[in-house]
Design a protein that fits this description.
Elements: E1 3-12, E2 15-24, E3 35-40, E4 52-54, H1 56-65, E5 68-69, H2 71-80, H3 98-134, H4 139-175
Parallel strand pairs: 1-5
Antiparallel strand pairs: 1-2, 2-3, 3-4
Length: 176
């Protein structure tokens, strides 16, 4: 007879409660079993000690006789230190492919280049600020320049009325 250590469901709808049982592998999930060796209440917090209760001596006995645990019960036995469980997931399966790694590398290179450009811009701004701090010593020469520009501004104001008169003449011609 093939013996299995598995979970047998109890409890109400949407309120599961499981018994950890040793049963004939051909019997139904909630059917007849040989012995109950523990309980599992998934509604309790994961760190709660009452979530999984297991009679370790009986579990060791049934494993010695040749009972095969289900995946979930194997996890419980591994947590209790009774039976070692091998990792079932392939860690390489979750790694990104070649194209994705290339895209990630390109993105990282662009980020580094952008950061370097930003740092260079900051340095240039600092240099300009230093140059501006040194520039006030030259301001007296800069004050003379607006006096030179004053005649140019007067000439521009003299030309403006002539341009306005020409614009008025053009408007009158269009209206006729």
């Amino acid at each position: 007879m093939a013996v299995a250590i598995r979970l047998s469901r109890g409890g109400a709808k949407k309120r599961p409660y499981y018994r950890i049982v040793v049963s004939d592998s051909r019997s139904p999930r909630d059917g007849k079993y040989l012995e109950q060796i523990g309980t599992y209440n998934p509604l309790l917090a994961k760190d709660d000690e009452n979530r999984v209760k297991l009679d370790e001596d009986r579990a060791k006995y049934w494993l010695g006789v040749g009972a095969t645990p289900s995946d979930r019960v194997l996890r419980f036995l591994d947590a209790a230190g009774i039976l070692e469980r091998e990792a079932r997931n392939n860690p390489n399966k979750g790694k990104p492919g070649e194209k994705a790694t290339e895209r990630a590398e390109e993105k990282a290179e662009k980020a580094v280049a952008a950061k370097e450009a930003e740092e260079e811009a900051k340095k240039a701004a600092e240099e300009e600020a230093k140059a501006a701090a040194e520039a006030p010593a030259e301001e007296p020469a800069a004050e003379e320049a607006p006096a030179d520009e004053a005649p140019a501004e007067e000439a521009a104001t003299e030309e403006a009325p002539a341009e306005e008169a020409a614009a008025d003449d053009a408007a009158e011609e269009k209206s006729e």
